[in-house]
């Protein structure tokens, strides 16, 4: 395989937040809507008071962004590297110089739609179906990225910028659709006109410097602003006003006038700086503060089954951070700029030169700050090294140790985990990554020994933080006293991603009132993401945890949602918060606002249906549900909600039809299958209920609730041997499960 260019393509970043973040934005499904109902308890209004400080030093003015042209006088070499780079050209006003695509009145036909590209009055235009499915002329506002593809941002009015789904291939000089063969049209969430393609939220922050979305919920409009187009100096180094003062007046300011330095120290600051864009993550506000830790402003994803392979290699579009922080390179102190020249974004050396900085015949690293212990003196470029593994013949290090995939159709990305290739693992024997992958496979497949493998992994002290957080997320499927102890221990872990995962695990393992003692200290955690998740976890026990720390952290959680009002998910989260804290007059407006932001966001529609139904407005609730089903008849969640509504109305036969339809539409959703089984059993169809549970258990053998329900039904039916078989299977999977322990 030939080596692919390993440069950072700004065009690829559009989907860094896509598909949107149900878990990352703390979205919860409809069933939890009622779980937070513990009676009204309005949040107190608190006013901070500043205590006087004697002999305080003069407070310096807050640093601010400056015109980056002022950087060129002193930093000409860096500026020359930056010119023409993917960073500089990440986003440009659409004009004859920036637009690379063919707009000479040409037509492109995708699976479902036709788009025409043309010029008018000196500007660039597309004629394509909009949100209503009707073709219309739209102006192109910005060119997005330069290579290997270029996208275009469409101005749809009220400040909304949308990323067109048809892009220009800059190598083959042709138009192509980013979702070929998926039948995308105006009804599909992937359509260019939908919220998932809103560039103000999804894209522009990583293609500009000093970006603010500035969304107005009242006007449903954006007045987005940036200091400059493209990724400039201050996007990474922070506001430069203090640096200019330092350079001009030769004042004695720390870090040459910047708030902090990316140089020196360990590699964490630099890696987290790059991760603001080079990570699959969700925002926790509008913009970021350069002095913050990553998880003060963003919530990076874990190694979920949807995003990563079992061994942690890339699967979906996840960018570099998640892979790199698993690697031995990261643990040894390697930082992004050791391999990539940060201003040009190019590799620091050709061919294997980057790797040979450390992996060389001398066995010594030439990179400052990197721990060279353990390096072997070996000629890694010799055929004896790369030909000893059957099936591997590439002479480039990246061919084996940085496997890649195409994303956005034509954009090749290397995995940054620097892993041992699978073909070599058999020769080298068991490795930490191999044991991790085997453990995760057992956990997600419900295999015998799964719990023991999980506990063994979590007892390791050398487990990368992102892997530890991923494993902690599996703990609720394997409850035991040891699970509680391991999760509790990781509440004190140095890694904020680990602490957050431990909070989530304990919240799932413990009843609300029992969470207070272990979790309350984390309301004062130094990292915002941990504080807000802790407050959310303690919300059901708010009467037992009231106090200034809880109020402040819960206020931060609310502020996060208020800063994301352009998203339906945030409006749903606010509705749930308002319901849980007794602000009932704000619940329905928030749910309706969610549907204004995205009428196809089914969780908000279901929550509103349940809210109206619970307040005696059954006719309105039914109409809302019928409207949704008329637009989206294949929505499993809406069919499921219809079934539950019919159950509440006493129409059990019709309810079964809807619940069965939901399970058929999403056979992998065991929640739908579980509810269908309960409904079947309640109507006397015990055999059908057990068959449905058996089917669900085959799909998710780790699902403890399904297993216990099936055991119960089998016992009721007198099928003792089958029930005992399930008990023994559970014992093999998790012998410490509370259901298997003798009752006192």
From TrEMBL:
PROSITE patterns: TPR (PS50005). Coiled coil: none annotated. InterPro entries: ARM-like, Cyt_c-552/4, Multihaem_cyt_sf, Multiheme_Cytochr_ET, Paired_CXXCH_1, TPR-like_helical_dom_sf, TPR_rpt. One of its GO terms (molecular function) is oxidoreductase activity. It comes from the Bacteria. Keywords: Signal. This is Tetratricopeptide repeat protein. It comes from Pseudomonas bharatica CSV86. The lineage of its organism: Bacteria, Pseudomonadati, Pseudomonadota, Gammaproteobacteria, Pseudomonadales.
